[in-house]
N-acetyltransferase GCN5 (Aliidongia dinghuensis), 181 residues
Amino acid sequence: MIELTNERPADAAAIETLLDQAFGPDRHAKSSYSYRKRVSRIWPLCQVARDAGEIVGTIRYWPIMVGPTAAPALLLGPVAVRADARSSGVGGMLIRTSLARAATAGHHLIMLVGDEPYYGRFGFKPAENWGISMRRENPARVLALPIGPAALEGTESIPVPSGIVERWRSVRRRAAKTLAA
């Protein structure tokens, strides 16, 4: 029986092995990984699927900023399911459960890089419909799911890792204090 639980730090090695098996060891070279560098994942949304205590699936979320006003959004991924558990609904369970959690937590926009035929059944559409693109990514694979009526107002832009925006804001605050002194 599959049980969904929150990801724990102790799960890291098993998850990394699963991700390497699912996407290959060169997965870190993908451009979507650049959005995850030096940024902590959104732990309450990161889940694992366990079967008899063993991890058979994982889903993670990362903070990003989108649009000229740097509106907070989520980058979903990676989602991976162990080869012997694929086509059993584990991936769908992870996605549906975590999307519901994200909505309950008040998040307004979720983005990912993936295949629309798979993710479209969860409501994801090409982000280019809203003028959103990601550098070095095929526009057809950059998908977005707005949650709430104002989710995509004024977002025409390229997402950036939230860590970059936070560092930039910190530099601006220090500069403003220096100028005021």
Q: What stands out?
A: The first strand starts at residue 2 and ends at 6.
